[in-house]
Write a structure and sequence with these properties.
It holds the Pfam family DUF892. InterPro entries: DUF892_YciF-like (IPR010287), Ferritin-like (IPR012347), Ferritin-like_SF (IPR009078). This protein is mainly alpha-helical and 341 residues long. It contains 13 helices and no strands. The protein has 3 domains: 212 residues, Ferritin, core subunit, four-helix bundle (Ferritin); 66 residues, no CATH class; 44 residues. It is 77% helix and 0% strand. Helix 1 runs antiparallel to helix 4. The chain is elongated and about 80 Å long. It starts with a helix and ends with a helix.
């Protein structure tokens, strides 16, 4: 496959993975409020399947991205984060919808039908794309996962009549059957919260690690900063209270920032305020790091790297440090390397 063909397949895999990651959160919350029985068993089975789907899609994505574009990895992580955020935002609404427990479960089941239909459509498209581009491995994976989604949709549809009859019995005839003590809601909710926190920590660590690796490719750090700045709010900037500061106060704080933070502020300033003096100062500070990933390194790591540096690289470090971070230990090490070279 060509690079463009791989990129298109990775795009569709990113979409599928984000959907699976978001569905994990929704299923956890729905299981927590669903009484024991056939429908809850179906949800629990599908939660296990969904976790497996997410892992398999991520593995295939990694295989296609091996040695590829690191920006694509960052985009995939961003899509996963959005999928999780949307699922977590929806969870509290699931808890309060409907007049009683029976109706909450029914409405969740109807939503689940729509979600499964979306997933089926996602995997049909992925399979057809992969086959058209000669990627049989991805196509077979999509077909296998689609079969699981179709089976789950059928299971939910089979449960809808019984769930509807439970609503009639409870809301019309006054013969409710929903017993919160049988849902395991308290335990499930507590477990879901802890798992969500751990997932958020792990996802955050993974995202940071991936971003750091990506920044080792020339130009990626500045591209990342510009992309973040395009949607950044004041709170996202590396200078606290940015909007309340005048141009001179901002200019004083710019020299110690990384290339990512400078690019982010540049995009924000152009979008929100547009002060010429600030933009000119940022422009004077923006440029290539002495080596890709430099801004992510602490002083000791830079000093270690300088031990094998030639005079040209040591000079580049001195120039960059004087304009940006001004770390004494780094400047001294760069000077020693220049002297010894």
């Amino acid at each position: 496959m060509t690079t463009s063909e791989k990129s298109k397949i990775v795009q569709y895999l990113n979409e599928a993975h984000a959907t699976e990651v978001g569905l994990i959160r929704v299923l956890q919350e729905q299981i927590a409020m669903t009484p024991r029985g056939a429908y809850r068993s179906a949800l629990e089975k599908h939660l296990r399947e969904t976790r497996s789907h997410a892992d398999r899609v991520a593995a295939r994505r990694s295989e296609l991205e091996s040695g590829g574009n690191p920006i694509g990895t960052i985009v995939g992580l961003a899509q996963d984060a959005v999928g999780q955020a949307l699922a977590l935002a929806k969870a509290p609404l699931d808890l309060v919808r409907g007049s009683g427990g029976e109706e909450k479960v029914l409405k969740n089941a109807k939503d689940a039908c729509a979600t499964e239909a979306l997933e089926i459509a996602t995997y049909i498209s992925l399979e057809e794309l992969a086959r058209a581009l000669g990627d049989e491995q991805t196509a077979d994976l999509a077909a296998a996962i689609r079969a699981d989604e179709e089976a789950m949709l059928e299971r939910i549809q089979d449960q809808l009549p019984a769930l509807t009859r439970a609503v009639v019995a409870a809301d019309i005839k006054g013969n409710g059957s929903y017993d919160i003590t049988k849902t395991g809601a308290a335990d499930a909710a507590r477990d879901a919260v802890e798992e969500t926190k751990e997932a958020a920590r792990s996802a955050g660590d993974a995202a940071k690690s991936t971003a750091r690796q990506a920044r080792r490719v020339p130009g990626v750090a500045r591209a990342e900063g510009a992309a973040k700045g395009a949607v950044a709010s004041e709170e996202d900037l590396a200078i606290p209270g940015y909007d309340s500061l005048n141009a001179d106060e901002i200019i004083e704080r710019l020299s110690g920032l990384s290339q990512i933070d400078l690019a982010k502020i540049d995009a924000y300033e152009r979008r929100e305020i547009g002060r010429k003096t600030v933009l000119e100062r940022i422009s004077s500070l923006r440029g290539d790091e002495p080596w890709p990933g430099y801004d992510d390194m602490n002083a000791q790591d830079v000093v270690e790297r300088l031990r094998d540096a030639d005079d040209a690289l040591a000079g580049s470090v001195r120039q960059y440090e004087r304009a940006h971070k001004g770390r004494t230990t780094v400047l001294r090490a760069a000077e020693r390397e220049r002297t010894h070279a």
